[in-house]
């Protein structure tokens, strides 16, 4: 009996010792991860072991970080998240000093398991910064920033799609409708026109499948926080309740890539070097006759992921901006009337809009600039990482550190934009009633990784907003919908709302 008791006590003691050792190890490891990586590392909150400041940032992280930056830590600060320190750049000057003036040091992309498991280092948006990236980016700039198949061609694609869209909307005439899905179809078809050289009927099963997978990968509300966990802490994929979200993300991505592969294959079969009508054609030409000749940088897999990137990056961003634009018009009918006056004078009610009309539409330009300031679509931009050690604002940032541009924080900086929470296009109009372009609003980020589709996005937002106003009186239903953003993991999208479109 006594022997038995002694044995139990020993067992208990040994088990307890094991547990204590494990606990002490975990605590030391957790505290070790919170240790700042360098004595001159930017300041920031300390956080708690294993989680850092994750709990404080679970809602509107960019707003919280901007507040910390204004109240305590200054424009360049650090935030511990899971087991790493992130740098946040909170003012225009800080983003400019890093992304623009030291572009080659601050334009890396972290190797994030979630994305890399499908696309490896192909495509553009997630590609490691280096010579290969620069070659691909240069080609993309040539095509999408106007020099490839020309600004006119892009305008034609947007106008053609815009006409389909307007025709589609006519059927809703006079009754309250939520047109979010229709706008999504529109912007997807614009990217399809530019990248794939084709448009899809809105009910085409292939199109519906691409859209379904894109939408699910970008922001399935059920998986949103799990996806965020996977981005911040890839090892979370081994947790049983997270594994499913990773698998769903992967399957959706593989489906999109499969479709892109088929479309590239079709292009190759009918390729004519004398008639390049879309991004894939231009790429195939480069593969055979240009930069890709004699090297494998322009291989098919690279093209498939590149086109996927365009589709992914260019659909929801533009569609949500247009959704915000129409919602804001409901709230400010006086601004809508001013834009309508400019349409009447500069374009007319039946002529086709062109970006060249912007010159004579200062208020419309001011409205659109205020739109992308007031509702910043990608509040935290895309994660960057340092490719080598860097000095910034007197701080030392080691190689491989995660760096985020707080784009929301820049666009809502009270020292630049007094009362930033107020929507006021007149901020961008000078005493001579001219539009003043501001480089200090950075919805598309800046530097070597600035949004590749910026020109295209600006063109489509302008042309589509004008087209809708040319054809319809845009009015609110009985109740004015909320201007507060809805819930989404990466993008700041409006809550779903209804409006009434009736012909003029
Ligand atoms: C209102 C619409 C849009 C907004 C607000 C937006 C914003 C952004 C932002 C903030 C980034 C991250 C830049 C960085 O890493 O610092 C980005 C990257 C990118 N965007 Fe856009 N974007 C829009 C539309 C588009 C469109 C229409 C396309 C397609 C043609 C596109 C293609 C891309 C690509 C390919 C990248 C990755 C660039 C790289 O890593 O080098 N975007 N965008």
Word description of this protein:
- The protein is of the alpha+beta class and 504 residues long.
- It has 17 helices and 9 strands.
- The protein has helices at residues 2-34, 61-73, 92-100, 103-106, 113-119, 131-144, 151-170, 180-196, 205-219, 224-232, 240-269, 279-289, 300-331, 333-346, 362-374, 407-411, 454-471, and strands at 76-81, 84-89, 176-177, 384-385, 390-392, 395-397, 402-405, 472-476, 499-503.
- The strands form 3 sheets. The protein has a 4-stranded mixed beta sheet with strand order 1-2-7-4. A 3-stranded antiparallel beta sheet has the order 3-9-8. The chain has a two-stranded antiparallel ribbon with strand order 5-6.
- It is globular and about 90 Å long.
- The model has no long low-confidence stretch (mean pLDDT 89).
- The site of protoporphyrin IX containing FE has 26 residues, from α6, α13 and α17.
List keywords for this structure.
9 strands, four-stranded mixed beta sheet, three-stranded antiparallel beta sheet, Cyt_P450_CS, Cyt_P450, oxidoreductase, 52% helix, binds protoporphyrin IX containing FE, 504 residues, alpha+beta
């Amino acid at each position: 009996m006594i022997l038995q008791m002694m044995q139990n006590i020993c067992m208990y003691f040994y088990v307890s010792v094991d547990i204590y050792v494990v606990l002490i190890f975990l605590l030391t490891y957790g505290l070790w991860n919170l240790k700042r990586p360098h004595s001159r590392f930017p300041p920031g909150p300390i956080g708690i072991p294993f989680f850092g400041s994750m709990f404080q940032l679970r809602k509107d992280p960019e707003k919280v970080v901007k507040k910390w930056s204004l109240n305590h830590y200054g424009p360049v600060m650090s935030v511990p998240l899971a087991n790493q320190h992130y740098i946040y750049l909170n003012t225009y000057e800080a983003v400019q000093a890093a992304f623009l003036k030291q572009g080659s040091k601050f334009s890396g992309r972290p190797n994030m398991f979630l994305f890399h498991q499908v696309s490896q280092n192909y495509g553009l948006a997630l590609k490691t910064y280096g010579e290969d990236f620069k070659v691909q980016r240069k080609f993309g700039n040539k095509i999408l920033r106007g020099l490839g198949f020309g600004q006119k061609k892009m305008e034609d694609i947007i106008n053609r799609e815009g006409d389909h869209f307007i025709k589609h909307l006519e059927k809703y005439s006079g009754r309250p409708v939520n047109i979010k899905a229709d706008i999504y179809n529109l912007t997807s078809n614009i990217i399809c026109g530019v990248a794939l050289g084709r448009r899809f009927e809105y009910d085409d099963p292939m199109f519906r499948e691409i859209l379904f997978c894109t939408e699910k990968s970008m922001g399935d509300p059920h998986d949103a926080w799990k996806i965020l966990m996977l981005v911040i802490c890839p090892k979370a994929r081994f947790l049983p309740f997270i594994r499913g979200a990773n698998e769903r993300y992967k399957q959706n991505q593989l489906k999109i890539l499969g479709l892109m592969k088929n479309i590239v294959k079709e292009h190759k079969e009918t390729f004519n070097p004398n008639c390049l009508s879309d991004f894939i054609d231009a790429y195939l030409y480069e593969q055979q006759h240009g930069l890709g000749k004699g090297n494998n940088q322009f291989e098919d897999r690279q093209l498939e992921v590149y086109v996927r990137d365009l589709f992914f990056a260019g659909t929801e961003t533009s569609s949500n901006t247009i959704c915000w634009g129409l919602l804001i018009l409901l709230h400010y009918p006086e601004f809508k009337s001013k834009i309508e006056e400019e349409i009447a004078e500069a374009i007319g009610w039946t002529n086709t809009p062109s970006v060249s009309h912007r010159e004579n539409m200062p208020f419309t330009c001011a409205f659109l600039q205020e739109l992308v300031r007031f509702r910043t679509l990608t509040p935290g931009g895309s994660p960057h990482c340092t490719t080598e050690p860097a000095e910034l604002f007197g701080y030392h940032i080691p190689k491989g550190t995660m760096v985020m541009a707080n784009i929301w924080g820049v666009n809502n900086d009270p020292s630049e934009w007094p009362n930033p929470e107020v929507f006021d296009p007149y901020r961008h109009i000078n005493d001579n009633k001219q539009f003043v372009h501001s480089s200090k609003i950075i919805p598309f980020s800046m530097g070597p990784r600035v949004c590749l589709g910026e020109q295209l996005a600006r063109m489509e937002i302008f042309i589509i907003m004008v087209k809708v106003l040319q054809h319809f009186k845009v009015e609110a239903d009985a109740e004015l919908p909320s201007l507060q953003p809805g819930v989404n993991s990466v993008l700041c999208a409006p809550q779903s709302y209804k409006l009434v479109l009736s012909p003029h």
